[in-house]
Design goal:
Layout (H helix, E strand, L loop, with lengths): L1 H5 L3 H7 L2 E3 L9 E6 L3 E6 L14 E2 L4 E3 L8 E2 L1 H5 L5 H9 L17 H4 L2
Antiparallel strand pairs: 1-2, 2-3, 4-5, 5-6
């Protein structure tokens, strides 16, 4: 309900602000970068209308030691337990990379239970 009441589309932002799109420098970046009146840069992310999943190279590590291959999925890999045991974390990170989805499924109604602001999105 909060998202529905407070959602502002990227198109609405672009209509209200005088932003000039910058050339994409990093293909894997989820944001399209814009210049704001030559004073700074603004990045807008469109996870629903402009799927960038196939180019995404990001993994997120939560404060409780969970490695998440995708912000729009509840899938995560526990790194804290093997870290405390002194284990090599590379196999766990490789597993996260291997399981990284090619696409989110938000449009099909699959929504992560944990909200993005809690996990760094």
């Amino acid at each position: 309900a909060f998202s529905d009441r407070h959602f502002l589309s990227c198109d609405a932002v672009l209509e209200r602000l005088e932003l000039e799109e910058l050339e994409r420098q990093v293909k894997s970046s989820p944001a399209t970068m814009y210049s704001y009146k030559g004073k700074g840069r603004v990045g807008l992310i469109r996870p629903l209308s402009c799927s960038f999943c196939s180019h995404c190279n990001r993994l997120r590590l939560s404060s409780d030691g969970k490695l998440r291959p995708c912000l729009h999925s509840d899938e995560n890999i526990d790194l804290l337990t093997p870290l405390r045991k002194g284990e090599d974390l590379r196999p766990y990170i490789e597993e996260a990379l291997k399981n990284k989805p090619f696409s989110h499924h938000i449009n099909e109604g699959e929504i992560a239970r944990e909200s993005m602001h809690r996990i760094g999105g």
